[in-house]
Specification:
It is built from 7 helices and 17 strands. It has 321 residues and is an alpha/beta fold. 19% of the residues lie in helices and 34% in strands. The chain starts with 6 loop residues before the first strand and ends with a strand. This is Oxidoreductase.
């Protein structure tokens, strides 16, 4: 069994459209027991069985960690992605039986912080739903700044404002409202930790400014899941398993390896945790590295690949798997 991928048999207990792009899904255990405990920032990997094909996508848990009767996730529809979000939106209905992983937290709160400064962009709000619930229950000091394209796409903005009032600040792109980042980062009390989740441009901007303004790296936390991208099919030889497989256009390399009956480790399936790191034995072609785990130097060396998000173009690829 892969690391961190112990499975839970669940039933979909509710499906709630949130706005024109986002739908919320509720899961309960099939055996009626409570679900495992989790902490704010955790995610689960949802298995989507779509005919012959199984997709596994990670989603942040957004309910209160104090209530494990059900898990909730929110899925933003991506019309040009590989189909996972469309499958959830089109096919998942209340009463459907599904399999999800145990929760894993790669974006946990540092509870030593005297204050938690949270910056969310778009659907990046979801881990903060659970984190703010956790902090509110524990009497933690937090402030959330949430940017969204329009008020109608401000997923859960109303809920958050109602729950936490002035601890939540909203910014709407269509009204040209922007976070005054330097001022915000420069005016925090000592012992503040910074958390950011949203589009990669936003994460890069916030992390760069925090570093430039002297925030210690250990106080800056970010959730940077990359969705696997479609691309041209390619062939891979798995040297340890003695198999040669084809990675389809809409398939990730990790999914193709799994479909061949090989069970590689993974946690995030989004290029950030390092679990799926795989050695390259030989190659003749070009790597398309999409992860946030390997260094630039490691990307250039072509000696490793993160199969959950990265692809290959060219003649031949042999992996130590
Ligand atoms: S599974 Fe986390 S980096 Fe690939």
């Amino acid at each position: 069994m892969s690391t961190g991928t112990t499975k839970l048999d669940v039933v979909v207990s509710d499906v709630v459209p949130v706005n024109e792009l986002v739908t919320r899904f509720h899961f309960r255990r099939r055996d009626g027991q409570l679900l495992p405990t989790f902490s704010g920032g955790a995610h689960v990997v949802v298995e989507m069985r779509d005919g012959e094909r199984t997709r596994l996508n990670p989603y942040s848990l957004m309910g209160s960690p104090l209530d494990t009767r059900e898990y909730t996730i929110s899925v933003r529809r991506d019309d040009v992605g590989r189909g996972g979000s469309l499958f959830m939106h089109r096919h998942v209905r209340p009463g459907m039986e599904m399999v999800i992983s145990y929760p894993v937290n790669l974006f946990s709160l540092d509870l030593r912080a005297r204050k938690h400064l949270m910056l969310a962009g778009g659907i990046g709000i979801t881990p903060f739903m659970a984190q703010t619930a956790q902090l509110a229950a524990e009497g933690g000091n937090f402030e959330l700044h949430y940017t969204c394209r329009t008020a109608s796409l401000g997923t859960y903005a109303d809920v958050l404002r109602e729950r936490y009032d002035r601890r939540v600040r909203l910014y709407h792109d269509d009204r040209d409202e922007r976070i005054e980042l330097d001022r915000l980062l420069s005016s925090q009390p000592l012992g503040t930790h910074l958390y950011v989740c949203g589009p990669s441009g936003m994460i890069g901007w916030v992390c760069d400014r925090a570093a430039a303004l002297g925030w210690p790296a250990e106080t800056v936390h970010f959730e940077h899941f990359a969705a696997p991208q479609p691309g041209a099919p390619f062939d891979v030889t798995l040297a340890v398993s003695g198999k040669t497989i084809r990675v389809g256009e809409q398939q990730s390399l990790l999914e193709a390896i799994e479909a061949a009956g090989v069970d590689p480790p993974y946690l995030c399936r989004g290029g950030v945790c390092g679990q799926c790191e795989t050695n390259v034995i030989a190659h003749d072609g070009k790597f398309i590295h999409n992860d946030h785990w390997l260094s630039e130097q490691e990307h250039r060396s072509c000696k490793k690949i993160m199969p959950c998000v990265s692809r290959f173009e060219g003649g031949s690829l042999v992996l130590e798997r």
